[in-house]
Amino acid sequence: MRECFMWAAIPHMAELPHPGLSVSGFAGKAGDRQHGSECLAHLRDSRKGESLMVTGIDVQLYNVQDFNRALAFYTAFFGREPAQLHRIGDGGWAEFELPDGSCFAIGKHENFPWQAGYNIMFAVPDVEEAVRFVRSHGCIASDPSEGPVCWRSFAQDPEGNHLVLHHRK
Fold first, then answer.
1. Rounded to the nearest 10 degrees, what angle do helices 67-78 and 127-136 cross at?
2. 37 lies in the same domain as 105
3. pTM: predicted TM-score of the whole model, two decimal places
């Protein structure tokens, strides 16, 4: 069995069954990312080209700079409290379960350096109303526009993450 240290960006990898691979800990140093890549390559080789059995996307996540500000915005945006909320120092993790069964999360943690997220298309019943809401919270949103299959507005949350307010025709 090959011993492997995975980096902190994918902590749940330690909980998954990996034939021929033992994950014994985490390391957050940049040099360990190369080792993590080697471990994932070994995992692919050990499965002999088989799928890693991805069945969907469980959570879409935006990293945030100001956890409390983002938490207040998304709690109001979704009109519900997070289903999961874990505070860690001045950061934490919050998951919002949406009516269609999908999950959106925000997080701030020292092992996840902030960078702007890009273009999750949030389904809304009324794009104009959603634009008014986003703007009323001091955020940027383009005027709604019509595309071939949808109405949409390109916006940003208070953290600078890009999102699309989207309604299918």
1. 150
2. no
3. 0.63
